[in-house]
Amino acid sequence: MQPVVRFLTENKKIAIRPGSSLLDAGNRAGVSIRTRCGGKAACLMCKVKVEDQSFLTKPEKSEQLKLGALLEEGWRLACQAKVTGNGDVEVLVPEDPLKSAVRALLAKQKEEDLW
Ligand code: FES
């Protein structure tokens, strides 16, 4: 049986082959995970949070160097973290900063319209 990767915020899940990266899982599930370097552990845009990393590969040196202390907070590079196949994985993808900014602007505008 294939492990399942669940994207909690998007409420999507996908069964995926062991050894696949979380970035691959996101692409197959239709979840947008930002990337600029094409999965080379260079841009850091694919950061995702995984609270229980029991069924992910351990971070390689390049990922450790890039993420530093963020690793201890549960952050991983989606392009580097791979599903081991021993169990399912739950992933939180942070909101795109541009979307966050637009949302905050709209909320502020709506608040001002109420006055
Ligand atoms: S896609 Fe660039 S660091 Fe993962």
Distance between the termini: 57 Å
Output the strand order for the largest sheet: 2-1-5
Record field, number of beta strands: 5
Q: Write down the CATH class.
A: Alpha Beta
N-to-C SSE series?
EEHEHEEH
Plain-language structure description:
The chain has 115 residues and is of the alpha+beta class. It is globular and about 55 Å long. The protein has helices at residues 22-29, 61-67, 97-114, and strands spanning 4-7, 12-15, 47-49, 75-77, 89-91. A hairpin with a 4-residue loop joins strand 1 and strand 2. The chain has a single domain (4-114), classed as Beta-grasp domain (Ubiquitin-like (UB roll), Roll), CATH 3.10.20. The strands form 2 sheets. Strands 2-1-5 form a 3-stranded mixed sheet, covered by helices on one side. A two-stranded antiparallel ribbon has the order 3-4. It has 3 helices and 5 strands.
Q: What would a concise description of this structure say?
A:
This protein is of the alpha+beta class and 115 residues long. Helices cover 29% and strands 15% of the residues.
Features of the shown structure:
two-stranded antiparallel ribbon; alpha+beta; about 120 residues; single chain; binds FE2/S2 (inorganic) cluster; Ubiquitin-like (UB roll)
Task: Detail the topology: elements first, then pairings.
Layout: E1 4-7, E2 12-15, H1 22-29, E3 47-49, H2 61-67, E4 75-77, E5 89-91, H3 97-114
Parallel strand pairs: 1-5
Antiparallel strand pairs: 1-2, 3-4
The protein binds FE2/S2 (inorganic) cluster.
FE2/S2 (inorganic) cluster binds at residues 35-37, 39, 41-46, 77, 79.
